[in-house]
Design brief:
Alkaline Phosphatase, subunit A; globular; 4-stranded mixed beta sheet; alpha/beta; 8-stranded mixed beta sheet
């Protein structure tokens, strides 16, 4: 069989629950829905770390974050570590990155032979370009009160960047003359915060989304100490129902905007390389809490932070309209693409190819677990979760309190079963299985060894006024004046 083209549309921070074809009754995602109708929706897909760089590094290397040793956004994937992109290149593919991948450091390729558009986030540790990129929303892409307070309707650099990336991808496909099979990653930044959406989309979702309940005192008292620490470290907690609704309206609007861009990409694929010999994948690097359980952004073990959309389409190969059960993760993508491309094996890869299940329209094995982990540098200790079948167990380093949820009966994680004796055997088995691969003390030591290097490199970058030009977005991005908030019809700069 001829090697298929592979096109991956990878967004940032898309909560896997906020997709219409995945069961959300309010969000409008016609292009994601159509892709699922023509292909397969993986119903319960997970990231392996709810944070950008560790998640993406794990996906590219085919290794769990603790294996590749990357846990936070200040770390770099080693240049001598092969990725699945190297495997595809070795198999004869033209490998192209258009837009975001959040590479840190001087290596901005990691196997990609071409890069059409740079990143919106800086590649230099300690050098921030946020003021130029975000204007009024300069402090809103990171978790904190400012991002909640300035959420609403307007325009931000996120949407402008994603439009430019999509324009570049469309132009590339329309003018491409290369005859090699193509692996193209279109890296979009939405629906990542700032929580700002175009006025029409914001107003629509603000009018239809249900009124959220704020975090009650009872909710706060029952919250795990890890989650309380997460909120305290970011100046969050007890956000009002109005603030939560405003965040969600903006977030839903951004998801619909990303769906529109996806439609443009699918249309040009149909006109150029065609769907018959092209695998299309839409997915994201992790989710967003959008106020559920009082949590926003990511970096926690809740489903909203861990779940990602995962939709495959390969016309006449993947049965149309498939909805596959089981627990795939981003770790599996390396093996899946290598399998489809008949490419060289990726040394040590820990994932499993999804291709046999996709081609046969079959669920993944019911007893196959998925693991996700976090060890950030923002004040919280490590945490990890394992899900197997209907049950999900969470271990928080430094805390006696564990969590156990039956996600079939309690998909919103409102009833913690960890202290229920009836579930002691289930909790014990999941804990033992997680501890076979997750060593929180070792991870803490790795983090402690890394931090002095990070601090020194930050000082160096500031002192030397380091600026990596290959990280720059296009020249037009420097002069955009689209970073404003609309309040009662007036632009607030």
């Amino acid at each position: 069989m001829k090697q298929p083209n592979i096109i991956m549309i990878l967004t940032d921070e898309h909560n896997g629950k906020v997709v219409h074809c995945g069961g959300d009754p309010w969000v409008r995602t016609p292009n994601m829905d159509e892709l699922a109708k023509e292909g397969a929706l993986m119903e319960h897909a997970y990231c392996n770390s709810p944070l950008c760089v560790p998640s993406r590094s794990s996906m590219l290397s085919g290794l769990m974050p603790h294996t590749v040793g990357i846990f936070n956004n200040a770390q770099s994937l080693p240049s001598d570590r092969a990725t699945f992109v190297h495997c595809l290149g070795a198999a004869g593919y033209e490998t192209v990155l258009c837009g975001r991948m959040h590479f840190v450091g001087p290596d901005q390729r990691h196997g990609f032979e071409k890069r059409l558009v740079g990143d919106i986030t800086t590649a230099v540790l300690g050098v921030s370009l946020a003021e130029r990129r975000y204007g009024y929303f300069a402090k809103c892409s990171m978790p904190g009160r400012t991002g909640i307070e300035r959420s609403g309707k307007g325009e931000s650099a996120v949407m402008a960047y994603d439009k430019d990336v999509t324009d570049a991808a469309v132009d590339f496909l329309e003018t491409r003359e290369e005859e090699r099979p193509l692996f193209l990653t279109v890296g979009l930044y939405g629906p990542h915060s700032p929580y700002v959406a175009p006025q029409e989309l914001f107003d629509y979702y603000y009018s239809i989304l249900p009124e959220p309940a704020g975090l009650s005192e009872e909710d706060w008292n029952s919250m795990h100490p890890f989650e309380k620490q997460f909120l305290n470290n970011r100046g969050l907690g007890m956000e009002t129902p109005e603030e939560i609704k405003r965040v969600r309206a903006a977030y839903y609007g951004m998801v619909e905007y990303e769906d529109f861009l996806l439609g443009r990409i699918v249309d040009v694929v149909k006109r150029t390389v065609g769907l018959e010999n092209t695998i299309l994948l839409y997915t994201s690097d992790h989710g967003d809490g959008i106020g559920c359980h009082g949590l926003f952004w990511k970096s926690n073990m809740r489903e909203e932070s861990l779940r990602v959309p995962m939709i495959f389409c390969w016309k006449d190969h993947i049965p149309a309209g498939s909805k596959l059960g089981g627990l795939p993760s981003l770790l599996d993508l390396s093996q899946t693409f290598i399998d489809a491309a008949d490419a060289p094996k990726l040394p040590g890869a820990e994932g499993t190819s999804l291709m046999p299940y996709l081609l046969n329209g079959e669920d993944l094995p019911e007893n196959r677990p998925v693991i996700s982990e976090i060890c950030d540098i923002k004040g919280e200790d490590p945490a990890a979760m394992i899900r197997k079948g209907r049950y999900k167990y969470i271990s928080y380093y430094g805390y006696e309190k564990e969590c156990l949820y039956d996600l079939d009966e309690d998909p919103d994680e409102n009833c913690d079963l960890a202290e229920d004796e009836k579930y002691g055997r289930i909790k014990g088995k999941l804990k033992a299985e997680l501890e076979q691969v997750w060593d929180a003390e070792k991870v803490c030591r790795q983090r402690a060894e890394f931090l002095p290097h990070m601090m020194l490199m930050r000082t160096w970058a500031k002192e030397q006024k380091v600026n990596l030009l290959y990280d720059e977005w296009n020249q037009e991005g420097e002069s955009r004046n689209q970073n404003y908030l609309i309040v009662d019809g007036e632009k607030l700069f």
